[in-house]
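Hi V.,

You were right to ask for the full record rather than a summary. Here it is.
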Amino acid sequence: MRQRPGIAYGARWHPQQRAIDEPLPAADAERRHGAGEPYVVLLGPAGRPRHLVEVDGLHARLLAWSFDELQRRTFRVEFRQADRDRMALLEMTEWRYPDASAPEFDTDVPRCLTTFGSEITRPGRDAPIVQAIGTPTPPFRALGPDERWIAVPRFGSWSGPADFLSGLPQPPFPVPEPVETLRDFGPLPHPPAPPRAPQPRPPIAPPVSEPVRDWAPGAARPGPEMVTMFGPPARYLLEAGESEPGESEPGEEVVVQAREVGRLQLPTGRLLVTDPAYLGADLQPLTVALPTGSHPVTVAIATFPDRTEKRVAGCRISLREEPVAYWEPALQPGQDPSTLGDGQYFVVGVDSGVLAFTDAVILHHRLDPSSGWYEVRGVRDELRDELWRERSVVMEDPDTATNMIVFPSGFGDGGYPVWIGRCAEHDVVCVVADTEVLAGSTLVGPVEPG
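Predicted structure:
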């Protein structure tokens, strides 16, 4: 089984070292999963994990943790399998660290343990028992009866616990009051520090117009779904999983429909594809030169059999009308496609569950974190409903004559490839971010009318 970037497996978690103890290849972890043996899953970029999942198949139990920016655990949730398809939330613990100096699980910080009763044997009949110490602002998280369930995760699909934890509020560190509010209390004991000089930005690498010529022959190539998922509505059979060693589990059939979500403004033709939480001065656009102007953007949405779960399978920027004759990897400066091994590809890392397209011009205008224009919490809080209802959101920025188109990244955090489609004359036809929902799938046929 191919191990995706942003997912690491191990035998256990080492709390003192804040790292996986006894790392495991994906194949070994999958064997443990099938045998009901315990293992852990670390989700997020190396050195900056977002979630930790502890799987105990023998006891049908799952523990999941959420980390803050200092790698302290802030939420703990425990699920127990209730039936074939669902797991019920039994306990949730929350820690509120007041600042960066508080150690993990500091006994002096506000914290709360909530026990939700036996949802498995007495669903909805037992009121939660809340044991809170301290009074944080905002209050501790409360969950209604319908919010206490996740789907039983299949091996390799950790979107259930990750999405659950991503939806819990992560309180920011306290922000000092503005200096103006201190004037009534007399002069400041020390003169304010002078403003920090802006840091020089690294120059943006020049664009490349020529096609990629030295792509390693064994490197991964995009499948036919890179074209078909943006065509007429169609049914796909997802790649089969493995429920027990040597026993395959049939893949689910999904319906994929494409929808145009807006037009991306590219005043410079230099494209950024990024997790918007990490938009900053050191980010570089793709090396490929794209036509300037306004270009339509389309998302392909996969609807699962229960009709409630929907995932963005891919997002495409259309630049020309010609059909794609061949594909090449979208490259960041310094990436050499000739170094790729068999089945390998370059990816864009995702740590907040969303990806974005935007023009590199914003690197010169929108680097102040206080603006909140690109900060992912702003997307999730202010535009959350639209983002998850429509599976995309368009954020306009009149100062730069550009915008940002944000969309959920398939099954959540990880690493996802971006592909450049060229026509027979070698011009760029489209750019596609593949969130790998349809990886290894089979096109079954069109959606029947009615």
